[in-house]
Amino acid sequence: MTLVLVLAAFLWGVGWVMKTPLKTRWAMIALLLGAVIVLHLVLPNGHPIRDSTGGTAVVWIFAIVAGFLIYGYTYLLSALRARAESTSTLSAETTQHSGPFSDTELERYARHIVLREIGGAGQKALKDASILVVGAGGLGAPALQYLAAAGVGTIGVIDDDVVDNSNLQRQVIHTDPRIGIPKVDSAAMAIKDLNPFVTVKPYNRRLTADIAADLIADYDLVLDGCDNFDTRYLVNATCVTTQTPLIAAALTQWEGQISLYDPNAGTPCYQCIFPQAPAAELVPSCAEGGVLGPLPGVIGAMIAVEAVKAITGAGEGLRGRMLIYDALYAETRSITMNPRADCPVCGG
Question: What is the pTM of this model?
């Protein structure tokens, strides 16, 4: 018996040195044992070879049978394990892709989903929504950040300006290393860093009458945070034409205002409330009159809040009302607004 074991060990060692596949090494051992069994069946009792190889073939027949049983059991376990892992992987993939959200998104938006007023349906509405933000400056910066964090599926941003050092006191979506690059590109970088599940569409140009209608028609909601009246009136008129709800905000020095304009739902439009632009000296620019750094953050965040409410249908929005915030005296007030029948944009 010792001789057979030594020969088996020798064959295994040779196979290991020559890097023979495992199955081949086992086949060599099986051939050896088969040859030993044949010798035991052919040679007479008492033959020296039979005596040196165990004396009987029963031992080796049992060894071969036991080996096959062990191999079969191991093979069966491996097959069952592979099948279980395959089923588990398929189940995980099905779970991940059968609903509108991946597991990562569900975890990310969990605080929204548990809100009764938003829930899963509201979060799905946000993911399916497309919002255009006009201006990537003081008001657009926080609005863009919170829209991205909230999981709005598609965010467009249009602006023709570049990041300037003087912007960084209040335009928090931009950073010092991005000074000199287009604001829309800077905003897109920040949004993708914050939420890779959001699609960002940057438009590095001024909003003009020749592109306004086609651009705005592609979006469900428009947020206007621009800093000039010409663009505000253009955005308002285009939103009225395309029947796109508009959330517009403005600020100066210590005060900001915000409202939702949706004449198609019975509200006034922007021009109903501001029939014409005020004299330039009455509304100084940020460069001329200054502006409190956190103020755009407050009003910009309010824009994002109203946008989320408008998309999900949560609560009561600012349709037909204007919210005015005075940061210097920590006061807020709300005024009711009505459409004007003689408005050149939405009247009649």
Answer: 0.71
